[in-house]
Amino acid sequence: MWVHIYYFSNSFFPPIDSLSMLEPMPYKGNLVKKKFIFDSIKLDKLKTKATESGVENPSRVEVVTALIYRCAVTAASKLSSAGFLKPSVLIQVFNLRKRIIPPLPEKSFENMVWFYTIKTVEESEMEFPALVGQLKAGLADFCDTYAKNFTGQELIQLNDIREGDGIEAFVTLEQQDMAVLERDAELLQFCYLH
């Protein structure tokens, strides 16, 4: 299972109703797209959950990404013929402008994005704090290793909500996986389905 995460801040990219460039590529399965809303209170609870498990200063994007990824992989695994964890890869895409040295102005021409991946094969890697930690470590590794050298099937799209500090997550999954995900108690304690 491949999961691609995109996060767009309203301050950089004003929200529009249709982001055709982010629509899934042609696929013969039966995909369903749903919107999950995470308000600022629930985001704070998620961040606290990660912090209490030893993750330092988790971001809103890291905790939402980790939770949705965990729940989506769990949904797919429950429906697999073997009934156990499907090895999965998450691709996290992020804005390079602030990460490279020297940083580029936010209004510079062209999109400047890069990505890193996390892989989950073992059940222990699917624990929420472990996923947040992997996301944080992946970005830190990129910044430490590559950012200094710059002098170039979407399933989850994260956006700031128009009002407040919440995040809306558009999730596209196979229909049967979505049927499990949209009833996931862990996910629904932090968001509501819109």
Question: If you had to describe this structure to a student in words, what would you say it looks like?
Answer:
The structure is a single chain. With 194 residues, the protein is α/β, with parallel strands linked by helices. Helix content is 32%, strand content 24%. The chain contains five helices and seven strands. The chain has helices spanning 40-52, 60-79, 128-145, 175-181, 185-188, and strands at 2-8, 31-38, 88-95, 113-120, 156-160, 167-174, 192-193. A seven-stranded mixed beta sheet has the order 4-3-1-5-6-2-7. The radius of gyration is 17 Å and the shape is globular.
Describe the secondary-structure layout.
Layout: E1 2-8, E2 31-38, H1 40-52, H2 60-79, E3 88-95, E4 113-120, H3 128-145, E5 156-160, E6 167-174, H4 175-181, H5 185-188, E7 192-193
Parallel strand pairs: 1-3, 1-5
Antiparallel strand pairs: 2-6, 2-7, 3-4, 5-6
Helix pairs in contact: 2-3, 2-4
Concise description?
The protein has 194 residues and is an alpha/beta fold.
| Count of extended strands | 7
Q: Given the helix and strand composition, which structural class is it?
A: alpha/beta
User: What's the total helix number?
Assistant: 5
The run of helices and strands is: EEHHEEHEEHHE
Give the rounded overall mean pLDDT.
77
Amount of helix: 25-40%
Radius of gyration: 17 Å
Detail the poorly predicted runs: 1-24
Cα distance spanning the termini: 25 Å
What characteristics describe this protein?
single chain, alpha/beta, 7-stranded mixed sheet, 7 strands, globular
